[in-house]
Structure formats: structure tokens, C-alpha cells
């Protein structure tokens, strides 16, 4: 934990109460919710819900901790979680590698999982790598075999329709590492063969490769950030690219 006030790194072991918690590691995703608690997606240790507090002396302590594991009566699809996304309705979306897309209703504490090949309009693949909730409340789901879009209306159904985008629709590659929305509303994704810009209104896709100035055609899981000015940053195997999407 980095303390912005003291400009100091606080190790996990320094936080009061961590010594009695179950072991976990390989944190791939960290998400803060409106209650200021943290959700952690791990590779092999499931989903962690934790709240950190400061005591009277200003020392960090664990105020709440819960671990959700697969294989139980109620849990995510599996324990390898690469991405997390908050809904606006107390739902937490969970990207499970090789397991599909899970969602936790934080009010009821119940999980539901959407699997590929379970219905005619299901998820394109169970290997889910990335998630993004756009300003129109659409959930974008990146898998190792295509990009999926789930509208808020469909997400409430038992067997929702996932709109799919693959190489046959114009993507440069089917492995979707990271997703971000430009201020214009276009959706940008990073893949194993460059970047792609998707217009969610008409589905038009433009792609960009190493020959256009990218660090490499191959990008990295979850390596994306949008600055306050609207610049997009995408990280890959040889560094990162940043650009103003409206000027491309």
C-alpha cells in the first residue's frame, strides 16, 4: 500500500490483523467500490473482499475480510480472476480465466456464471481476460476468442444475448487484453496483433499495427489507463503507447 500523505510504501505484513488472515497472492485486479472497500481478483486464490481502516494512531488495520472460492456452494466460476468491474446496481462482474463470466449480487451475496456455448447467443469463449463498463452501462467482455458486449437490459435476463465481435467482423486478433472508452464513445481494445477502435453505434472497426507506431503488435492483460485529458495508454511487451484517440 502506498501512503500518499507520508509518501511511504506500507508492506502487507505491517497492516494490523493480516497475520491471522488466510494466505493469498498473485493479485491481478484491484477494484474499489462506493463503500471504499476493495475487491481483489487473484490467480489461484479466488475473490477477496477487504476493507482497510486506520486506528487512533493512524496505523492501518483490517476492518473486514472475506475470501470467495470456487467449488463451494456459492462462489465464482473458478479461482483465477483476471479482471473486475462494478455495476451501478450493486453487482460485481468477475472475469474468470477458462471459467466464464461470473457476477456477484452484493445485496444477496449470490453468484451467477454465464458460460460460452450454453445458449445460441452466449459468451464467445470461457477464457475471460478483460472487462469494461462504459458510460452507456454496457459491459464489454474481452476473451481469448473475441470481444463481447452485454447491455444492461440483457444482463438481467436468465439467458442474455451477448453481441460478439471477432476477426471476421474486423478485429485484428481475437485475444482481447484490455478495453477502454474514449471521450468520443468509441471503444478501444488491445490484442495480440495491435489495437482496434470500435464504434459501438454502427460496429465499424479500425485496426492499428506496429507499422503505425505501436510498441509491438502484442499487448498485455489489463494494461490500460485513461488520463484526465482523455489520453489512452496501452501497455505491451516492449513498453507502452499513449495517444489522444480523437486525433487519430
Can you describe what's shown?
The structure is a single chain. The protein is mainly β. The protein has one helix and 21 strands. The chain has one helix at 152-155, and strands spanning 2-3, 8-9, 27-32, 38-42, 47-54, 60-68, 81-86, 91-96, 100-105, 110-114, 128-133, 139-143, 146-150, 163-165, 178-181, 187-191, 194-198, 205-208, 219-226, 232-236, 239-243. Strands 3-4-5-6 form a four-stranded antiparallel sheet, with no helix packed on it. It has a four-stranded antiparallel sheet with strand order 7-8-9-10, with no helix packed on it. It has a four-stranded antiparallel sheet with strand order 11-12-13-14. Strand 17 (194-198) and strand 18 (205-208) form a beta hairpin. The longest helix is centred in the middle third of the chain and has 4 residues, at 152-155. The chain is globular. The two termini are 36 Å apart.
Report the strand count: 21
Average predicted local confidence, pLDDT: 95
How would you write the strand order of the largest sheet? 3-4-5-6
Shape: globular
- What does the largest sheet look like? 4 strands, antiparallel
Helix/strand-derived class? mainly beta
**Low-confidence parts:** none
> What radius of gyration results from the CA coordinates?
19 Å
Secondary-structure blueprint:
Blueprint: E1 2-3, E2 8-9, E3 27-32, E4 38-42, E5 47-54, E6 60-68, E7 81-86, E8 91-96, E9 100-105, E10 110-114, E11 128-133, E12 139-143, E13 146-150, H1 152-155, E14 163-165, E15 178-181, E16 187-191, E17 194-198, E18 205-208, E19 219-226, E20 232-236, E21 239-243
Antiparallel strand pairs: 1-2, 3-4, 4-5, 5-6, 7-8, 8-9, 9-10, 11-12, 12-13, 13-14, 15-16, 16-17, 17-18, 19-20, 20-21
